[in-house]
Design brief:
Elements (H helix, E strand, L loop, with lengths): L1 E6 L2 H13 L1 E6 L4 E3 L4 E3 L2 H8 L4 E2 L7 H8 L5 E5 L7 H4 L5 E6 L7 E2 L2 H7 L4 E8 L9 E8 L6 H25 L14 E2 L15 H10 L6 E5 L2 E9 L16 E5 L3 E5 L4 E9 L5 E2 H8 L10
Parallel strand pairs: 1-2, 1-6, 2-5, 6-7, 8-11
Antiparallel strand pairs: 3-4, 7-9, 9-10, 12-13, 13-16, 14-15, 15-16, 16-17
Length: about 325
């Protein structure tokens, strides 16, 4: 089939890779280059980098719904438009453009976690499984009919980075399966159950602030779910600290009554910092102070003379 692809993030690349191998990709649309990093250098999207490396025509409109872009899209006479983590909402004028319809690869088991951050929200909510959904797009965000979905357990050691990588590969394979069904006329379309829908709101920096009064599992899921941005964070003696990896201690672990949530209960040599939380204790294994590289928490202890009784938090 003739395909026009819309995508921007790392999550999109594997789907584009398989499409380029098995179909004719007439054009790739991605987000404009953005300034990133401490020095604000212009950064290309992963999709743009892939498209250039594979000689695919690539375009970066500020507004994909501008009349001139809609006119350009109509000139391709594409069989389908494929959208994977693009970053702009498509207007009805675009959705009605291809000969068949538009499909989207979404990184959740719809209708659960519609919206901008489904992988992150699934982990922070403590979900036991995630997955990908291939849907026929309509004018409503993530509410189109489901063509197929595939699930995967969220492992105890999964974080948003590892889960996104796995779902990107799953999504690419599921997309190919769905496109084959569409070509063969065997695709089935299932209306989403609105009663089961949840919203994965866009992440904000303040989502990362750790409340040490929460349970250890809540904070542990927050740490896992908010990688690589905004990251769970706290303060220590006025320093802004990103908490990048934690562990739930096994067994009946109780916090000594003389410690308040956020206080350092123990220092585990070569392991990290044991901190009091609402219901027990939590081990910080990896952290990053502002302007520094990520480091083992025990190295931070040695460099900053962390002591039992010191406190994390405001």
């Amino acid at each position: 089939m003739d395909i026009v692809f819309f995508g921007s993030s790392d999550f999109s690349v594997e789907s584009l890779r398989l499409l380029a191998e098995r179909h004719r990709v007439a054009a790739v649309f991605t987000q404009p280059d953005r300034k990133k990093g401490r020095h604000l250098h212009l950064s290309e999207t992963p999709v743009k980098i892939f498209a250039k490396e594979h000689n695919l025509p690539v375009f970066q409109p500020q507004d994909v719904n501008a009349p001139e872009i809609v006119a350009q899209l109509n000139q391709y006479h594409a069989d389908m438009f494929v959208v994977v983590s693009f970053g702009q909402k498509l207007s009805p004028a675009i959705l009605s453009g291809p000969k068949k319809f538009c499909v989207n690869v979404h990184s959740s088991l719809l209708p659960r976690w519609r919206g901008a951050a489904p992988i992150n929200r699934a982990i922070t909510a403590g979900d036991s499984q995630s997955g990908v959904t291939i849907m026929k797009m309509n004018e409503h965000m993530d509410r189109g009919d489901i063509i197929l979905s595939r699930s995967t357990p969220i492992g105890a050691d999964d974080d948003a980075i590892t889960l996104a990588h796995r779902l990107a590969e799953m999504g690419a394979r599921a997309l190919q399966e769905a496109l084959s069904a569409v070509e063969q006329g065997t695709a089935h379309f299932t209306v989403q159950d609105e009663a089961r829908s949840t919203v994965a709101k866009k992440l904000k920096k303040e989502d990362g602030l750790i409340d040490w009064m929460q349970s250890g599992r809540h904070i542990h899921n927050q740490v896992r779910g908010l990688l690589p941005w905004p990251c769970a964070h706290t303060h220590y003696k006025g320093m802004f600290i990103k908490v990048l990896k934690t562990a739930l201690l096994t067994g009946p672990v109780e916090c000594p009554p003389e410690f308040s949530p956020g206080q350092v209960v123990a220092i585990e040599k070569n392991k990290g910092i044991v901190v009091a939380v609402k219901d027990a204790v939590l081990l910080i294994e990896t952290l990053q102070s502002e302007g520094k590289r990520a480091m083992p928490a025990y190295d931070f202890v040695l460099g900053h003379h962390v002591r039992v009784g010191d406190a994390f938090g405001e």
